Amino acid sequence: MGSVRRGLTAGLLGGALVLAAAACGPSGSPGGAASAAGTTAARPRPTVPAAVVTVEPKNGATDVKPSGALKVTATGGKLTSVKVTGEDGREVPGTLAADGLGWTPAAALAVSAQYRVTARATDPNGLVTTAESAFSTLTPARRTGSYSNLDDGQTYGVGMIVSLRFRKAVQNRAEVERAVVFETSDGTAVKPHWFGDDRVDFRPAEYWKPGTKVTVKYRLKSAELAPGVYGDKDGEEHFTVGRSRVSTADVATHRMTVVENGQTVDTVKFTAGKAGFDSFNGTMVIEEMARKTRMSSNGVSGIRAGDEYDLDDVPHAMRLTDTGTYVHGNSWAIGSMGRSNASHGCIGIADTRYGSDGTDAGRFYNASMIGDVVTVVNSDGPRVSGENGLSGWNVPWTAW
C-alpha cells in the first residue's frame, strides 16, 4: 500500500505541474509578451508647447492709449513671467492674476513713450512659450491744467484737506483717482470726493495724526480726463502733519475754546455774525493766512444799505471759506467781544487797528497754521457746505 500511495502522489504532483505550465503558457508565449509591451509602454513626449501667449497691443502698434490697452494673457498654460520695459530700461510694475492667465500694469503707461514686452508661459508638460511685442504710446493733442492747494515740504494742521482743481471739466473721474496716489508714513488711508466736474478733494476718515508724513504722487499726464484730453501734471508733493490744534467757537457764549494736542490752552472772546449775516455752523479749516488783507462787501449777496464795508488792512486774517468767512483781528467792535454779534459772518477777535502780536488776535494768529480746525456751534446761520473752502469734514465718511 505504501508504494501505491507514493505512485499516486507522484502522479498528482506531475499533473499539478502540467496544469501550472498550461496556465502560464499564454503569458509567456511571444504573442503574450508583445501584448504586455503594447499596454505599458510610455506615450511619446510632446515637443510643441500647448500654451499660447497673447500680447496686446500687437508688435509695431503706435498711438496706443496709456491706460487700458496693455494686456498679456495665456491659454493652454500659465504665465510664469511678464517683463515690460520702457525706453529708459525701467521695468513697468504689474499684477499677475491668481490663476496665472493674465497680467496688467499697475498704473497707466507714459505718453509719447516706447515699450517692449517679453512674456513666458508654461504648459502642463513643462514646455515654455515666449512672446514679444514692441509698441509706442500716443502723444496727446490736447491737455488741461490742474493745481492743488499744497506747497511742497510744508507742515499743515490735522484738518488739512488736499484739493485738486482742473481748468476744464473731468469726464473720466476714475482716471484721475488712479493717477493720484497717497502714501502715508503711518498707513492712514485717504479717499477722494468730487465737488463738481473740476474739483476733487482728498482726506482720511478722521483728522490726521500729528507727525504723519504724506507723499502725493501725480501721474496726470497719462490720464485721459475727457475724450482726447489729458492732464498736465506729473511729480510728487510732500507735507508733514503738525501738532493738533482744534478750536470751537460757541456763538451762544461768544467764547472760543482752543485745544492743542488734547489739552485746552486758551479761551478767546469773539464776536460773530449779526442777524442777517449769521456765521456758518460746522467744521471749517484755515486755508489761507495773511497778516493783513482787504475785505469788501462788493459781490456779497444780501448787503443792505448802511451795511457796506471796504477795509483794506484787516489784520491777522485766517480764511475759513471760499465765500469769505474769516477768523480775523477786529479793532472796530471791541465792545462786542464776548458779548454780542456785530460782524458780517466772520469770527472777530480783539486786535489793534493795524494788528499787534500782543492782542488776542495776534496770539491766535501766531499759534495757528494752515490746516488747523475751527468749528462754529450754536449760530443761527446754516451749516457750511463741504465744498465751501476745506469744509469736507462736514460730509460723512460714508458719503465721502
Automatic annotation (TrEMBL):
Keywords: Acyltransferase, Cell shape, Cell wall biogenesis/degradation, Peptidoglycan synthesis, Signal, Transferase. Residues 245-377 form the L,D-TPase catalytic domain. Pfam families: Big_10, YkuD. SUPFAM superfamilies: L,D-transpeptidase catalytic domain-like. Pathway: Cell wall biogenesis; peptidoglycan biosynthesis. The active site is at H328, C346. Transmembrane segments: none annotated. PANTHER family: L,D-TRANSPEPTIDASE, L,D-TRANSPEPTIDASE YCIB-RELATED. This is Ig-like domain-containing protein. It comes from Kitasatospora arboriphila.
